[in-house]
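Archive maintenance. Older records in this collection stored only the sequence; we are now back-filling the structure field for every entry so that each record is complete. The fields below show one back-filled record exactly as it appears after the update. Entries are processed alphabetically, and CRAL-TRIO domain-containing protein is next in the queue.

ARCHIVE ENTRY
Title: CRAL-TRIO domain-containing protein
Organism field: Saponaria officinalis
Length field: 269
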Amino acid sequence: MFKWRNSQNNDVEDDSVDYEEKVKELKVALGPLSGRDKTFCNDGCLRRYLVARSWNVDNAKKMLEDTLKWRASYKPEDIRWHEVTHEGETGKISRADFHDREGRTVLIMRPGKQNTTSPEGNIRHLVYMLENAILNLPEGQHQMCWLIDFTDFSMTKNSSVGTTREIINIFQNHYPERLGFQFLYNPPRIFQAFWNVVKYFLDPKTFEKVKFVYPNNKESLELMTIYFDIENLPKEFGGNATLEYDHDEFSKLMRDDDAKTSKLWGSDA
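Back-filled structure field:
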């Protein structure tokens, strides 16, 4: 029997359910696929959508079909670094050069370094970084972690509630079971009011993955050591490493990854 390890590191098991058979059922329900849809809908993808819908094949099918429509319209796999590089100049979102202890790709987000006011530009940049994080997942790993540094955070730089809600909808509906944990490191008190609004947009599974971490809190420090090697973790998150964003170096890395993306999806956008 197939066992699926979920984002909380517990096996989702029910002796009455054959999980591998569920994957086969969903594959049949979707019908023949071709092109990018076929590339996207591998067994790992089907399992994630089934987990997100509690292994209900009909619900998973609807969710996946909605994603395929979104991808056909938005074309996230065709976004290239040169299109969003201006959004990334300050390093407000970057892929870390280390993984967590379970091998998950780590995205570092620094909302205090927000540098543009275009909601669509910010969303497109984030979607690009999500696709890039997935591209760089180690074999056998399907999730990523988000580390959010609130240094220099201000509400004037923060995304609007509407933009944040759209981001949440895209991530929850089209990237299910991709998030391992999200660590909000030392958020200021002024963030609490914003959080009290947007948390209601999160489904229960996603909500459980959000962890508030404070540098002077013993439990917070222990939590970080559980998930990260302190020697690799930047000082901004309580570790010993130095985090310096070099836009030119990061751009070179992204351009190299763009070539891998084109090869994967059969495109040269």
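Update note: The beta strands are 4-5, 11-12, 93-99, 105-109, 144-149, 179-185, 210-213. DSSP finds eleven helices and seven strands in the chain.
Entry marked complete.
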